[in-house]
């Protein structure tokens, strides 16, 4: 196979961007095989921009057409697992958009079916995993350069969305349409990076506000405490109402500390001896030197790295990696089966909030789905009353 013929399901913002990258020749080993969308306006757009590309109104017809070797699912979240399974059933490679689904039970079905088709490529669009900054942070952690993790803190509030954003369409920011708010729409990348770099927590306790600063039924404000089960803890904060926004990720280890600012700059401090050894061996005279500001350079080395991110570069990297896996077996940066972890974390945060207590991971999937369905029914009732 010289070039992977990609079928794009959904010609919205993401689907249009991918079509543009591929048609401009920016993605190695890939071309547009077909486009699918149920919106007649998108059909007109596609025929104008990509007149030689077959267009389908039904994605099953596209999967069975012979026009595509693979698909990417740029559709509402609930549909990702279903479309992934239907593609793999027909021996079509699947690249699922994030999140992998709304709840873990449906993502498990996708993963289980994908496992029966090991000859096919199954990926998830975690473009932040191609970000050199976060790859570097993961490398430092994996190499043990700052020792065992003691605490993580990520405040990511750079998702400001005005009310007009939510008013664009009826399905947006609803339990039935999207399955949640900031946790399933804006923050899945950070939830994935958090567990990819630092590991999954064992317990979660959250304080979540629904329709706090926006007229929506889903969450727009999240504060979560993570318990990693070994003494280490974490805090994860996100929202969509901070117009000034903060993106700061701190990881404290027993041999150092990493601070990431604005996903552009990394400050790495490596202690010359582990903190526990310092505590056990330093005299109060040595300690006073540190407190007086004369000793920091003597106890740790500091490295500052800055990264530039070209818009679209990460998405192109995921598409290229996906194509390379199909063509020559290059390992996937984000295997599709990894998608369940971020969904699991988002589900746990929701469930803790709904139950008003700490929840253990893995969560009770049936309980989560029952509570989600309650939210959907309440939402329908409120719409009728309006």
Automatic annotation (TrEMBL):
InterPro entries per the UniProt record, alphabetical: Gfo/Idh/MocA-like_OxRdtase_N (IPR000683), Gfo/Idh/MocA_Oxidoreductase (IPR052515), GFO_IDH_MocA-like_dom (IPR055170), NAD(P)-bd_dom_sf (IPR036291)
One Pfam annotation, family name? Answer: GFO_IDH_MocA_C3
Domain spans labelled GFO/IDH/MocA-like oxidoreductase: 134-258
Tell me which residues make up the Gfo/Idh/MocA-like oxidoreductase N-terminal domain: 5-117
Q: What is this protein called?
A: Dehydrogenase
Organism lineage reads as:
Bacteria, Bacillati, Bacillota, Bacilli, Bacillales
